């Protein structure tokens, strides 16, 4: 994938264009698969209607995709909460540009900040909180327990406020090796929907993701 992306950029496609297309593709697939809600919550195929969404952004280009997703969902009317793993000030290149384009504030990567989004969703009447996993992409390496354990704690505590996580992985679920499918932590973030780009990767065809919806987005590579 790195070689394919490099060839596309050498041919004149900018990294920012690729990141924008990736984020737009994730949003399109989220809307297509969005879980049904209680009466009174708008259907996002026609209007996002103030739905709360939590976007988890990492310290690299996968996080840059997440900031695009956050911005596009916000512009569609969602109440978007962003939590960043790592200091966004240290982002580089296209990821930094998309963090700056987001410009709506970023919460710390903590149980309390993420539960704040869950409680806001519950108060508004949602029974699902869409959570976008844009933490790490194809280059993630073990150990990742300091990341995944925080998210798993949030999943458990969300049940206490009566809301279910509906998780969307941007390209690669956090905690799984792209090529081998090996666990990079004790408990990876297994999503309900995976949105990947250009082609499925080996991990997408492994038993870990057997129950997940999978979507491949063409970003012009």
UniProtKB/TrEMBL annotation:
Classification via PROSITE patterns: YJEF_N (PS51385)
SUPFAM superfamilies: YjeF N-terminal domain-like (SSF64153)
Secretion signal, residue range per the UniProt entry: none
Protein name: YjeF N-terminal domain-containing protein
Domain of life: Bacteria
YjeF N-terminal domain location: 1-221
Pfam families: YjeF_N
NCBIfam families recorded: yjeF_nterm
Matching InterPro entries: YjeF_N_dom (IPR004443), YjeF_N_dom_sf (IPR036652)
